[in-house]
Amino acid sequence: MKVDIPEGKNPIEYVWGDLVPGIGPAAANFSLAVYAHTTLGLREFEAARLRIAQINGCLFCLDWRTERDGLKVEEEFADAVAKWRTTDVFDARTRLAAEYAERYALHHHCLDEEFWDRMTAHYSQVEIVELTMSLGSWLAFGRLNRVLGLDAMCVLPGH
C-alpha cells in the first residue's frame, strides 16, 4: 500500500504526525531516543540496526548510516552484517548484535539458554534491554515505512 501524501508535504512528517497525531509523535520520539540515548558502541548498534533493515527491506533504513562524533561504519559494513555468521571483521559483541537482531525479528521463540549465555557473557543486562528496545523500534518503524511505501518516498539528506 502507498499512502497518499499531499503535495508539498514530507512523507514521514505527514504520516507520522498529521495522520495519527495521538500516536505518531510519540512513536517518532521513541525512534529518535534510540539514537540520542544509546550507550552501545557504534559497530554493535549498526550491526543490529542494519540486520533489521535487511530483514525489513526498508530502502531508507538500508541506505542510512548512523553517525557518531563524525564517525560512521566503513562502506563494506552492511555486506559483513548480511554475512554475520562467517565474516572475519566482527568482534564477539558485533556478531552477537547481528545475531540477536536476526533472531529477534525472525526466530524470537528460539532465544534459548545457550544464546543467552553467550549474550550475557558480552553484554550487561542494561545493554541487553537497550538493544532489545532498539530492535523493537527498528523492526516496527522500518517495517511500517516499508509496508506503507514511505521508504521509497524519503530521501536522505544530501542525496
Automatic annotation (TrEMBL):
Occurrences of domain Carboxymuconolactone decarboxylase-like (ranges): 26-102
Pfam families on file: CMD (PF02627)
SUPFAM superfamilies with a match to the protein in the record: AhpD-like
Protein name (Swiss-Prot/TrEMBL): Carboxymuconolactone decarboxylase family protein
